[in-house]
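The protein record quoted in full:

***
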Amino acid sequence: MAHRGGSRSGFRSPYGFFVRDQLPELRRRGLPVTGVVDAVPYCSQAWALLTKEEKMAYTEKARKWNEKKRSQKAVKETCNLADPVPACLTTKTSIVASLPDASAMSWKNDQAVIADIFYFLNIYSHGKLPSYCEQRFLPCEIGCVKYSLQDGIMADFHHFIDPEEPPRGFRYHCQAASDGTHRIPISGFHLSRTCYAVVLRELLEFVQPVRGVWPHFYCRSDDRFRINWCLNRMASITGIESHLELLAVEDLVTELYQKKHQKEPSKTWVCKELDVFLWDFSSNTRCKWHEENDIVCCALASCKKIAYCISRSLASVYGVSLTAAHLPLQDSDYGESRNTKMVILDAGRFQKMKVQGSGCDRHFASPSQDQESVPANCDSPCGVKTAIYGASTMRGRGITRLLKNASDLSMSFSN
């Protein structure tokens, strides 16, 4: 499979043809490349240096090759119409291609709403590179959860991704962005990383169509460009067509609320429901590595916290009883009166930073949100997050239980 350098359907990208041409030279240099997938990380810089005419030559080669494969596939499908293949022998790829668009479906009643399955997706990157760079992002971690109002989180998916080499001159920029957020090192990471091809294939296998409908993926609107770019980058390099449609989770919350109450909620209310820190340190939320190192920014955790927020806000509206799959066990009994918008762990540090941050003041943002560009007058590389809740200094195990005890104490005094 690795020697083919294409998708399961056999189609190839221009970059795939370029990488195949580079295999002899890479092997001559003694690099451990057995096929196209292994060679991908070593070819991105050389591809970027090609002229427009050279890239067009590879594009034309890929076009001709793919047209030939499509014609062969059409002939095969025509033959299958005359001699149908049993359903149990059809391939997974052909099944996925025939699924209707989920946007054509509608909820007929509340039961359809709570039984519907959603996928929350996030991909973290080693910073955000300037627009003139071909590599706008370097995907390094992916998280996804399968969720329904009825059953809560049903399954999760997580991988550390083997990133491409940063463009020349941007290595410090990328590492600084990582150190300020998820803290995944660019190189020398002791945990195994997964290549683009395996990530996309396993992600597609993770998604299980419901009632013949290919589901949508949801993410925060601020993360949508980055995640789409990373998906398209991995697809173009590997030649694997993902067919994934990424939508804003804010729109999903609005639709869920409007379906029940027949009126649209304010954007402020939706953002308030999603922007909470309550579960940053809850158990079984982050991946094992981020949990052990007490790092808040985790791609898997950001997806799970979306599920928690929707459960807390809308499960009771639809008459669903909360379980450990909807909320972390120690948090499932939290009342609606609790202020979960923000938790200031170090008031002195906050006040000091507020005085010093004349040019970089920002509204509070969840530390799970990813790298964003900062104003030009800040002493940080473009794309390096400078949120006041730095991942390197934030500590707070048990903070949610502390808040609960404080609330119980205040209630006892009031009685």
